[in-house]
Structure formats: structure tokens, C-alpha cells
Amino acid sequence: QVQLVQSGTEVKKPGASVKVSCKASGYTFTNYAMFWVRQAPGQSLEWMGWINTANGNTKYSRNFQGRVTITRDTSATTSYMEVSSLTSEDTAVYYCARNLGGSTLIGFDIWGQGTMVTVSS
Amino acid sequence: SYELTQPPSVSVSPGQTASITCSGDKLGEKYSCWYQQKPGQSPVLVIYQDTKRPSGISERFSGSNSGNTATLTISETQTMDEADYYCQAWDSSTAVFGLGTKLTVL
User: Fold this and answer.
1) Half-sphere exposure (CA, 13 Å, Cβ side) for A2?
2) Which of A48, B82, B87, B106 fits A36 for a cystine, CB–CB 3.0-4.6 Å?
3) Strands, E, within A13-114: which ranges?
């Protein structure tokens, strides 16, 4: 079945970086853009950026410009999201999500299970 | 930056109709989506392109979008519908989410 499986829980110190993976299966990876969204404890969803999985083009939220890098490995049908210079405010659940409309921006029909990232000294 | 406003909470009795609004400048000129999220779970898309339901989503869920307001309507509300609901719209190829509405069924 169509699914996105993310890497496991991470605990990082302030100033460190974290890289989360998202493996897709059950569909043609390069036919659908991949988005990354995070949710701090008790807070709303926050869009971070997305990648065109066919050509690797990316777009990032201004809130994360320069600190977030999204990549993909088409042979592994996996997308990666790396955040640098972590602070306690980056403590959140990080989700990957597939765009329903391929490269046409519609909405997120398939979500990963989420990866908890805790930033603490 | 573009902002979407939702009421923090909505309460409804079982079997009644629940309406959750989402307001934004000229929102009716953009496509809107709605997501349901239950505690400890990933969000689930329930409405996209204002009125469409993904496969597997109950017909009790419907959406509309006009002027500055998009609305998610849940008919014959059940206790299983109790969750947080987030609206989302697109603004210059960026995804914007509302702060969410907690739906209580009691």
C-alpha cells in the first residue's frame, strides 16, 4: 500500500543538526512532490518546505531559510530533511507528506508517521 | 505573510451538524483543504480543492469556500469525529495552515 515511513526519534543538543528520512513505497516516487511539515507540542502545523522529486527543485518557508535542506534519493525512493543550528524551539514532531496532485499543489493525502525531535542540553 | 484564522474550539451534540470556519483575505480565490488530526496521530486529509473528498472519507464531511471564508461541515456528527481540524491554503506556492479548531462532541 501507499505509505511513507520516517526515521526514528532524535535527541539533539542546541547548535547541532538533525537529518530525518522519509521512505516512500507503493507509488511512483518521482510523480509526487514531497513536503515537510512540523508540529511543536500543542501547536499547529507549520510548513517547512518541499521538493520536486522529479528534478530536485526545492522551495523553503522563509521561517527556515538557510537552516533547512530538503533532498531526495530517487533510487532509494527517499526524501531527507535536515535542520541545522537547532534550538529548543525546534523541538517538534516532523512529518513528511505527499502532495495529492503530483507537482500541482493541492493538498497532502499521505503522511508519514512523524519523527519526534527533541533539542535539549 | 498570509494568515488563516480559525475558532479555537467548536462544540456539537452527537447527531447534530458541526461547522468550522477558516478566514483569510480573499480566501475564496484560493483552494482550501481541511485536515483532521486525532491525539498522537498524523493528520488526515478530509477535504481538498474546497469541496472534494479523498477516497475513504465519509460523505458526512463537506466543504465550501467563498469570499473570505472556507467552511468545513460535518453532518450527523459522531464521537469519532472529535479531533483537531486544520484548514490549509496555498499562497505563492507555499502552504499556509490555520491554528486549528478543537471539535468537541458532547
Assistant:
1) 12
2) A48
3) 18-25, 34-39, 45-51, 58-60, 68-73, 78-83, 92-99, 108-111
Backbone φ and ψ of B31, nearest 5°: -85, 140
Per-residue pLDDT of chain B (106 residues; tens, 9 = 90+): 899 999 999 999 999 999 999 999 999 999 999 999 999 999 999 999 999 999 999 999 999 999 999 999 999 999 999 999 999 999 888 999 999 999 999 9
Residue A22 identity? C
Cell output for B37: 488530526
Q: Give the 3-state secondary structure percentages of chain B, helix then strand then coil, rounded to 5.
A: 5, 50, 45
Contact A59 B93 (CB under 8 A): yes
A45 at B interface, C-beta within 8 A: yes
Cα of A76 to nearest chain B Cα, Å:
23
Whole-number Å distance between alpha carbons of B89 and B45: 13
What cell numbers appear for B95 in the block?
Answer: 502552504
Distance CA A21, CA A5 (A): 8
Cβ-proximal residues to B4 (8 Å cutoff; 6+ apart), any chain: B22, B23, B24, B27, B87, B88, B89, B96, B97, B98, B99
In angstroms, the separation between the Cα of residue B92 and the nearest Cα of chain A is: 10
Q: Do B42 and A113 touch (CB under 8 A)?
A: yes
Residue type, B85: Y
